[in-house]
Amino acid sequence: MKKISILGSTGSIGTQTLDIVYQYPEQFKVMGLTTHSNIELLFAQIKQFHPEIVAVANKEKVENLKNMISTLDNSPIIVAGDQGVIEVACYGDTESIVTGIVGCAGLLPTIEAIKAGKDIALANKETLIAGGPVVLPLIEKYGVKLLPADSEHSAIFQCLQGIDNKDLKRVILTASGGAFRDLPTEKLKFVTVEDALKHPNWSMGKKITIDSATLMNKGLEVIEAHFLFEVDYSNIDIVIHPQSIIHSLIELIDTSVLAQLGWPDMRLPLLYALSWPKRIHTDWKQLDLAKMSNLTFQKPDYDKYPCIKLAYAAGKAGGAMPAVLNAANEQAVKSFLNKEITFLAIPYIIEKTCELFVSNNSSQPTLDDILEADQWARGTALMLVKK
Ligand code: NAD
Ligand code: MG
Asked: How is 7-40 classified by DSSP, letter by letter?
């Protein structure tokens, strides 16, 4: 039985991970859970999964949770604030941490979990994008595993099993195309938050759904792939695949191309990130190619989706630039969700913030440099929102 904890257990990734535990209780034991503010759902999860420790990041909510829990016979340790989330990430003999927190808020807990010797099932891509230059050396130093749970990176990782790294030539990330795939570019001016939240294939948290509509999600995944698989940016490609059945592909030096296929269901990549190197038998719906409609592919439209180019440029610039891109994007998406800016202002704000950072970038940033760049970029993006 593997002992796991889930950071952000009340979100889309968190609840889908708990669904796996519910279905395969003989495989996993939940040690710790965390939420930002959703104590009602956390309370229900405590009753169902009996964790040893839970954290509420929002300190104002923790007393309410304590009151709710006082009615239980067996109550977990309750901790609060960002420090509380870190305590859960480092707790006891937990083996694997699923990082389901959204945004750069996941960075410090992930770093502390690595230092405590925990394997990381990485859903929280923002952590690696911003913190790659410090996270990767720590993975080496502490000898832990960084296992991708993002569906594309899981697909690449699955294809890479048994492949010598020197034989990998190119990775090809598939993208659904997001909410506005079939909308003409000139109509993007008029789209609303509600329109952008309608993802064609996946049901996810709001932030990543907006990232899918701008295709920044794919841009962030390019940087994620660079860090995870040590592939040069010139060898990372994107192809639009509206059906989301092929989750990504790799090309080898002899031109052979390998792909991983499955329904658009995050539980499979999450399960593999927890079971690797083993496979666990499931009774999930089988893929039936004969019953499926066509699988189609097209080139991404880089003019319609400037976020893709911005992400490649930030990735190539390296240093703390990906952290700046990520933080500006987090702020711009937040402002868009609050209806303070239009959809097309998102790439504009990110581009301007990155431009203003160029001369401050350093090629070997420390954790402090990254945290400082992150804060600076949030402030700069917010200033641009207000302009
Ligand atoms: P979500 O918004 O549904 O859930 C986020 C979780 O993090 C919640 O439990 C919330 O309480 C917690 N949280 C939010 N802000 C926090 C903070 N400041 N401190 C501590 N906890 C905080 O998000 P999601 O869709 O589950 O996405 C989580 C991460 O996984 C993101 O990085 C996303 O890019 C990545 N991801 C998600 C999916 C998906 O299908 N949802 C797929 C691939 C990758
Ligand atoms: Mg993905």
From this structure: ETTTSHHHHHHHHHHHH-TTTEEEEEEEESS-HH
Token pair 């079971």 is found at 275
Specify whether the CB–CB gap between 263 and 211 falls below 8 A. no
Hey, what are 228's tokens?
Answer: 């995870």
pTM: predicted TM-score of the whole model, two decimal places: 0.98
Distance CA 185, CA 177 (A): 13
In degrees, rounded to 5, the angle at the alpha carbon of residue 114 between the alpha carbons of residues 274 and 106 is 80
**From atom 32 of ligand 1, which residue's Cα is the shortest distance away?**
124
User: What stretches in the chain show pLDDT beneath 70?
Assistant: none
* Ligand 2 centroid – CA 197 distance (Å): 16
CA pair distance 78, 53, nearest whole angstrom: 6
Per-residue pLDDT tens for 312-358? 999 999 999 999 999 999 999 999 999 999 999 999 999 999 999 99
CA distance 192 to 170: 36
Instruction: Give, using CA atoms, the residue closest to atom 42 of ligand 1.
Output: 150
Task: With beta carbons less than 8 A apart as the criterion, state whether 320 and 312 touch.
Answer: no
264/272 Cα distance (integer angstroms): 15
Q: Tell me the C-alpha distance between 378 and 384, whole Å.
A: 10
> Which atom in ligand 1 lies closest to the alpha carbon of residue 103?
32
* C-beta of residue 378 within 8 angstroms of C-beta of residue 386: no
**Rounded to an integer, what distance in angstroms lies between the CA atom of residue 92 and that of residue 118?**
10
Spatial separation of the C-alpha atoms in residues 378 and 353, rounded to whole Å? 9
- For atom 2 of ligand 1, which residue has the closest CA? 205
Which residues form the pocket of ligand 1, taking CB atoms under 6 Å from any ligand atom? 8-14, 35-36, 38, 57, 85, 100-102, 105, 123-126, 150, 202, 204-205, 207-208, 266
DSSP letters for 40-78: HHHHHHHHHH--SEEEESSGGGHHHHHHHHTT-SS--EE
Instruction: Using DSSP, state whether 318 is helix, strand or coil.
Output: coil
Peptide bond into 200 cis (omega under 30): no
